[in-house]
């Protein structure tokens, strides 16, 4: 549900389709090219099918039930979410299998997810949780006791990102603790090798991906040698999935960004320019000399910066580059030999990190052939609890 108290760029009384340069479409607005989204979903699903891997896309990128439905219709086995409230938003929209890929710590988190856990089995919904410590396992035991349900749990393993995750050498002990805990069912292991973003080139990314595969394959062997049933080995992001195979012992991949892509995935060789689906539609609000100022600043584009692309990149206007952002202003310089944009012109900004954009939008606009054809609710906007 779009929180209707928030202003949106296209009011409800405007019938679709609408040209993206129609002045009833306010800016800044996030546009999503649906032909590109469809192609991205199909390409990744075909890759997973070819590799014999299940695909469980991370909804942190789109935060939208509508987009999750497209991924599931294409063959995804379920959806990954980053927390309790995102799990609630996705299941409220009809998603029937969610992996909460974040250790839930604290009473409020567990209380928040408890109603979903309680009704899940009866409603044919699977909610799996992840743990990387005994403390987290104890919290889940209490959740299982208070809800009277059996909870599937994956042990999270650190494959080098050094963010969360048990040391691979400690995975068997933690898995055994889960397996013998009343109310918990040991389902398998998962990891996220997000340090692939730090690799300097394609070979470095491949090395991170292969390390992820080898560590997870090794952990699986250790678990099976200890007599544990390992049904799920979940790994792989938009950047590293290309380097994982079922032969490594991996069963499932969880890319998120691939659905829209951004300049980070482009810069990490995980997509081509034609796979960039999302832009911010912005309006030139002021010019002076070679300075061009648009109505999208850090509160829309976020302060995220990339070594290659800075604050972002204008589509089809390569000579106009960001120099700085204030909260509501994006300030750019236009190259001397190019025609200056005029006040009122529309431009489209490509994202550095598209997932953080989506968190700031109540709805985004699905575009085909230059026309808005669909309002897409960002159901899990600001659902970080
Ligand atoms: C736990 C987890 N799994 C999967 C992903 C998906 O990664 P990407 O968006 O790079 O595909 C993320 C992204 O941060 C994550 O944190």
Order of helices and strands: EEHEHEHEHEHEHEHEEHEEHEEEEHEE
CATH topology type of the largest domain: TIM Barrel
Dominant shape = globular
What is the count of DSSP helices, taking H or I runs of 4+ residues?
A: 10
Tell me the structural class. Answer: alpha/beta
CATH class of the largest domain: Alpha Beta
In the CATH hierarchy, the architecture of the largest domain is Alpha-Beta Barrel
Head-to-tail CA distance between termini: 17 Å
Task: Walk me through this protein's architecture.
The protein is α/β, with parallel strands linked by helices. Helices cover 29% and strands 23% of the residues. The chain is built from ten helices and 18 strands. Strands 1, 2, 11, 12, 13, 14, 15, 16, 17 and 18 form a ten-stranded mixed beta sheet that branches. The protein has an eight-stranded parallel beta sheet with strand order 3-10-9-8-7-6-5-4, with helices on one face. α3 runs parallel beside α4 and α4 (107-120) crosses α5. The longest helix has 24 residues, at 202-225. The two termini are 17 Å apart. Residues 58, 60-61, 80, 101, 192, 194, 237-239, 254-258 line the site of pyridoxal-5'-phosphate (PLP).
